[in-house]
Amino acid sequence: MARPRDVASSEFDGLLEKSALKEVLREIGFKELTPIQRESLPHLFAGRDLIGQSHTGSGKTVAFAVPLLERVKLQPRRLQALVLCPTRELCTQVAREIRRLGRRHAGLRVLVVCGGEPGRPQALALEQGVHVVVATPGRAVDHLERGRLDLSGIHYLVLDEADRMLDMGFEEQMRMLLDAIPAKRQTVFFSATFPARFRELSRAYQRDPVEVRIEATPATRAPIEASFYSVEDENKFAALRAVLEASKAASILVFGNLKRGVADLAEGLERHGVSATALHGDLEQFERERVLARFRNGSVRVLVATDVAARGLDVSGLDLVVNFDFPHQAEDYVHRIGRTGRAGQMGRAVSFVSSAERSRHRAVAEELGLPSALARFESASAVPRALVAEMVTISISGGRKDKLRAGDVLGALTGDAGGLDAKLIGKIEIHDRITYVAIAAEVADRAFASLRDGRIKGRRFNVERL
Questions:
Q1: For the chain: N or C, fewer Cβ within 10 A?
Q2: Where are the beta strands (DSSP E) in 70-162?
Q3: In b/e form, how buried is each residue of 304-313, taking b as 16+ CB within 10 angstroms?
Q4: Residue 218 predicted with pLDDT over 50
Q5: Based on C-alpha coordinates, what's the Rg of the chain?
Q6: Is 64 helix (H, G, I), strand (E, B) or coil?
Q7: Is the predicted pLDDT of residue 55 greater than 80, yes or no?
Q8: Using the 8-state DSSP alphabet, how is residue 324 labeled?
Q9: pLDDT at 13
Q10: What are the DSSP calls for 41-64, one per residue?
Q11: Cβ atoms within 10 Å, residue 328
């Protein structure tokens, strides 16, 4: 077994051998290791199997992605690493982070394999060769059984949010994949909890794993101002509108427990002049990507979501999280409010608790050490002004696989043909076959016409205003 590298220094440079990865980390601005990275990386670089437990937003993706990228061989192009995740959202987020860290690995191919998307393009990409697959267990097994997914070359396996995959009923698929991968591999499990089934899985498929557990102490937990209000169901909508007005927040995530309720709530907010949209399990992948792109780039102020968004949601810098429906479990509460107050910034979480939800609130409060008392909501009758987004999203029918870059889109909008001030252009998010660009609302019509009638890199693309 290789000797663990010394991580006495807080800089990544002391860990890495590949200059390309060092350069990317410097460009991104990584300097200090987070606790989960500091405790995990020496063992991961030493080739040890590992069980890691840490809170939301702790940096675990970087912890397993950096050793992966250090070891991947770009030639020949074959599958060497598999990352399993419970949801499409988390797959997308993890793949994006691996690509970001590996952007100086010339020719690196990272493929997302999950349901909700056509299987044929995934099969074609697998046939052409990839280095890393990030997958949900169900779709990975589907490709395996069809002979499309060759696992014989995998030496690095990660199960991200392993407990969540077990909760979602993926144990059989997980075991099928683990059985199909060569035993001579490094197996890494990250999990928020350690149920008995998780322990059984570890005993069966890991070799003497080291355990790293990072508790969410005040030193590691982002500061969050949490408030709990007694609000009956019939008054929650008015209370939510009042909270949105009072907060002056630019980005708000509102959680509901039911898909239908989430959709109705988003529609109700829109009818009252609030820029809102819904995210839930009935949306197709293409629709989900649109929703998240609009929320990330600021062209939607309020995202109303079920717990499908609580884990792996690729958004940061949220000003406010609202529990419109109180969650059923303490773990769900932790993951929900973990979306706010990141990067050391003060976050705010507001929870509504109806009479029917009080026993649930007491149980969660006791488990997590939260205040059990509920404040009365005094401002539910206030009528807020309309909360309109300052940005508009335009989609372009070309992306990473069309060799489209953010600079190309920016140039088309600010050059002679577009003539827009770069300050009026927001986030440009490039996917495989589609690009989303945020434009200041006051010039959105002009930008749309410029992209519709003009060219990007000498080519015409279809554009749509979302």
A1: N
A2: 81-84, 110-113, 132-135, 156-160
A3: bbbbbbbbbb
A4: no
A5: 23
A6: helix
A7: no
A8: S
A9: 60
A10: HHHHHTT--EEEE--TTSSHHHHH
A11: 14
CA angle 89, 94, 97 (to 5 degrees): 125
Find tokens 């649109």 and name the residue: 290
Alpha carbons 89 and 309: distance in angstroms, whole number = 8
pLDDT value at position 17? 62
Distance from chain centroid for Cα 72: 23
Contact 253, 351 (CB under 8 A): no
Which DSSP symbol is given to 399?
A: -
* Strand ranges for 114-251 from DSSP E: 132-135, 156-160, 186-190, 210-213, 224-230
| Inter-residue contact 463 to 396 (CB < 8 Å) | yes
Q: Contact 139/119 with Cβ under 8 angstroms?
A: yes
- Cα distance between residue 40 and residue 443, in whole Å: 48
Contact (Cβ atoms closer than 8 angstroms) between residue 68 and residue 22: no
Binning pLDDT at 50, 70 and 90, where does residue 396 land?
Answer: very high
Place of tokens 């002391």: 14
Contacts of 437 (CB under 8 A, 6+ apart): 297, 393, 394, 396, 409, 413, 425, 426, 427, 428, 429, 447
Tokens at residue 235, please?
């008054």
pLDDT for 60-84, tens place per residue?
898 999 999 999 999 989 999 999 9
Tokens 């009923």, residue? 169
DSSP 422-446: GGGEEEEEE-SS-EEEEEEGGGHHH
Average pLDDT taken over every residue of the chain: 85
Banded model confidence at residue 323, pLDDT cuts 50, 70, 90: very high
Residue 179 is inside which H or E element, if any? helix 171-180
Nearest to 340 by CA among 224, 249, 219, 244: 224
CB 451 within 8 A of CB 412: yes
The span from the CA of 48 to the CA of 144, in Å, is: 27
More confident residue, 425 or 367: 425
pLDDT at 127 > cutoff 90: yes
pLDDT per position as a tens digit, 402-437: 888 888 998 899 887 678 888 899 989 888 889 999
d(CA 383, CA 225): 24
Q: Which residue's structure tokens are 């080739």?
A: 47
CA 211 → CA 189, 199, 204, 205, distances in Å?
10, 12, 16, 15
Fill in the DSSP letter of residue 13.
G
Residue 67 to residue 78: CA distance in whole angstroms: 18
pLDDT digit string, tens, across residues 273-289 = 899 999 987 888 788 88
| Stated length of the chain | 466
For residue 185, give the amino acid letter.
R
